[in-house]
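A protein record in our archive is deliberately plain, so that people and models can read it alike. The record that follows is passed on verbatim for readers who wish to inspect the format.
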Amino acid sequence: MERLQKVIASSGITSRRKAEELITAGKVFVNGEKVIDLGRKVSGNDVIVVDNVVINKEDKVYYLLNKPRNTVCSVSDEHNRKTVIDLIETDKRIYPVGRLDYDTTGILLLTNDGNLTNILTHPSNHVEKVYIAKLNRIMEIADLKKIRAGNTVDGRKCVPTHVKIKDIDKAKNTCLVEIGIIEGRNHIVKNLFAKMGYLVDKLTRIRYGFLTLEHLKSGEYRELSIKEVKKLYEYKR
């Protein structure tokens, strides 16, 4: 037996917090009975309907994708642009874990496991994401020290786990900078550099937690092993 809101979140239909809101709003039914009690527990045999949608219990799947440029991190797109879901051959209803910008490339996880998604995206679990950013000019050492110390973006301070210059092209006056962050706010990496007066021309996520791109080419993907999934669950604090 598990709490109803946890089962709803695990289905991937919504987050646990949103599930609790739907329950208290009277939009969740178990075996035809309206449930507004957040302490309600259910079993695998119960029929759960959330906002007129029946939750289907299906096997969990986990994919690691090397996201190419010009793809949208969503299940669908109103402008008919290619989405990351279009790149995965599966009959499961999967969704991306977090987001990468339209023009950002690199590691992206996709799954139908709501529990794992909540673990990986909650900042309290300290899942590090590492990026390589190509800047529009060579970063000055003083600025490097400042960004290491952290900067306030949208009213909240963000302190990277590490920042280091990987390569400098003096002829083109550009450089590659590796940066690790715990947060998952939209455009957080680009905004951190923008606060220091730098534009990010290209951005690639090269590591998510312990996972790396390995030998995956742009647009390629693979399934995670059971061992890898268990290790991702260990991020829960």
Summary: The chain has three domains: 2-54, 62-123+211-233, 128-208. Residues 83 and 108 are 12 Å apart (CA to CA).
